[in-house]
Write a structure and sequence with these properties.
- By secondary structure, this protein is α/β, with parallel strands linked by helices.
- Helices cover 31% and strands 24% of the residues.
- It contains 12 helices and 12 strands.
- The protein has an 8-stranded mixed sheet with strand order 6-7-8-3-9-10-12-11, sandwiched between helices. Strands 2-1-4-5 form a 4-stranded antiparallel sheet, covered by helices on one side.
- A hairpin with a 2-residue loop joins β9 and β10.
- The longest helix is centred in the middle third of the chain and has 18 residues.
- It is globular and about 65 Å long.
Length: 338
């Protein structure tokens, strides 16, 4: 069965210049995103999750650049494919796609909204940038969207300012800004950061309802494995700017193969964990991204590392249909239980 991919990322390399250092944020990422499904991108802080998303939208700061690779976007099933990485960051073509066809919910709703403008004007700005629509029609559409997103008294709150909204309501406003143009792809970068557990559950449920109603493709960037298990269809595990394991949520959670994925899974707190048992953790810390490696980047922290792990980069291997692992131990056969 052929899968329908809305977004394909091939050998993406993104770097930042910081003083005299070159920071290798994304190192040859390969990803295929299925249409109308949810892809979870997980990993520790600094592994390249957000930079991958920003590279897709070409929202990199002045010191960042896409060095190589190709990003292909197919808005409609069976339709024409557009090569996004061929456009410069300032091109009209990229501006027409960003916010309309591919939208993003940025981290931390507390600081992402402009305190000097009403929430209605901030949502309207994105809509009127991409569609020829009167202010009256735009306002009507936005109020309807706010009601759909669970914001009470939407007509009144349209004219209110961010400081008058709670954290959960601000996140709903951020979702409204991203959704107002009915995008094909919605990228959510840590959408539940700084929200309490109850509000987190509401926001995640809301995003799944949106996907079901509109057929939107979701890319969810998170470090929370519990969220991934709850809402994702496919999972990409990233480490040091590379995808080290990819598969369905069932494959990753029931049969993790990469030592890093296993370590992440073991680090998740369990409800039945005895107070006498120490919570597992991954030894060491993520290396400086400006360091050049000529072998597996996880080897210095890996409990299963062997001499072969220091002999060049591992290749992607398919251990079962759709389940890809990038590990030298897989080239020898299997990764035993850690």
């Amino acid at each position: 069965m052929n899968k329908d991919y809305i977004l394909e990322i091939e050998n993406l390399v993104t770097e930042f210049t910081v003083g005299k250092r070159i920071v290798h944020a994304v190192n040859g990422v390969n990803l295929k995103v299925e249409r109308s499904k949810t892809l979870g991108i997980v990993g520790e802080s600094g592994c390249g999750k957000s930079v991958t998303a920003h590279s897709v939208l070409q929202l990199l700061p002045p010191n960042g650049r896409i060095v190589s690779g190709e990003i292909r976007f197919t808005p409609e099933s069976g339709g024409e494919t557009q090569v996004l990485s061929a456009y410069k960051k300032t091109s009209e073509k990229m501006r027409s796609i960003r916010g309309k066809d591919i939208s993003m919910i940025f981290q931390d709703p507390m600081t992402s909204l402009n305190p000097a403008y009403t929430i209605g004007n901030q949502i309207m700005e994105n809509l009127r940038n991409h569609e020829k629509i009167s202010r009256a029609d735009a306002k009507e559409r936005i109020i309807k969207l706010l009601e759909e997103l669970g914001i009470p008294a939407a007509a009144q709150r349209f004219n209110e300012y961010p400081h008058q909204f709670s954290g959960g309501m601000k996140q709903r406003v951020m979702i409204a800004i991203a959704l107002v143009c009915n995008p094909n792809i919605l990228i959510a970068d840590e959408p539940t950061t700084a929200l309490d557990v109850t509000i987190q559950a509401q926001i995640l449920s809301l995003m799944k309802e949106i996907q079901k109603k509109h057929g939107t493709t979701l890319m969810l960037i998170t470090h929370n494995m519990g969220i991934v298990a709850e809402v994702c269809d496919n999972v990409a595990v990233m480490y040091m700017g590379r995808v080290v394991e990819f598969g369905t949520v069932e494959q990753i959670f029931e049969n993790p193969q990469h030592p890093y994925t296993k370590a992440l899974m073991q680090s998740v707190p369990q409800l039945d964990l005895s107070r006498d048992v120490e919570l597992a953790s991954i030894p060491g810390s993520t290396p400086d991204a400006s360091i050049h490696f000529d072998h597996c980047e996880f080897a210095p922290r890996c409990a299963r590392a062997c001499a072969r792990c220091m002999e060049g980069f591992p290749e992607d291997m398919e251990v079962e249909p759709g389940h890809i692992v990038r590990c030298k131990l897989m080239e020898e056969g299997n990764v035993d239980e850690l």
